[in-house]
Amino acid sequence: xxxxxxxxxxxxxxxxxxxxxxxxxxxxxLVLFLIVPIGYTTTVRVLPPEDMKNxxxxxxxxxxxxxxxxxxxxxxxxxxxxxxxxxxxxxAAEYVLRHSELQEYYDEEDSRRAVQAMQEDLFVEVTxxxxxxLSFSAYTEFFARFTNQxxxxxxxxxxxxxxxxxxxxxxxxxxxNIKARNSRSYIEGQLEDTYxxxxxxxxxxRDFQEKYKTIALAEQLTAAIGNAAEIKAQIMSSExxxxxxxxxxxKNSMDYQAMKKRIDxxxxxxxxxxxxxxxxxxYLPAFDEVPDIQLEFADLTREVKIYNEVYLLLQKxxxxxxxxxxKNVPTIEVLDEAIPSIKPKSPRLVFHTxxxxxxxFALISALFTFKELNAEKLRKGEK
Length: 383
Fold this sequence. Notes:
4-stranded antiparallel beta sheet, alpha+beta, rod-shaped, single chain
């Protein structure tokens, strides 16, 4: 069939086509306007977490190597994707269900069916910047256009969208607090163990210091060496004087005997510094024992310092985890809260009416064309 012939058929039947098309459009418009349920969708937007280490659920992702496996995904978007999946979870839906009237809205006695219906009406998207956009759709009943139901459903949609963010924040804080509680419990055990080791090392260092009379070994050693050098110098000087007496006086003279006695006393003092008896350690061990004692003293001192540093670090971590366990600070930062929509999402009166008119026009045009073709075939058959 040629285009001209088709146009002639349409022009010839234009009145009937127009009446049918307009009638269908009017009927569809009235059905959409008066009968079809009205749907509202509200959206809440959440900023990506700034502090990646303290984002709570971010710890589930482990190391940053996960980003490399995903490929081209920023850390903020990665955490936002995790938040989006949690928002779609059954736990989040059950939280919202407990804190809203959705079970009555869905008219479901079984909470599992209500949760399933909620998840179908929920839409979560993560932008390339890492923003989380969460939308919830709610619908009125039939014939609700001129009632108060559209406003209440519009408000309900906004309330549920915001409530989902509250649920996400609650889950995030709960997981964060559980993690902190487990960490605190573990650190508490390590703290007690480290404290016992610190006390034991301090006790062994104290026993060592009491045994060898060491407080500041380096200073004591310096003073002892100086004292020993002074005594040695006195011994050498006295021996020279004693030799002088041997040439100038009798060996049994009082000066000679006094000098010899002085030398014996000085040598005894010097020997006591070199190797003091076990019960005669004043403030320094024997010089022969000093290298080994220095090593042992250094080991004991280092051990005490190590356990002391570890104990201080554990105490800081313990208090940090205790604070985290008990703090109640929001972990989700909302950019735009959900507010009631200005206009409904569905039905789209103009669009759907126009589409129905096009379909009606195409259908009636095809019907008249088919009818004309059949009539033409009959006329040719009669001839």
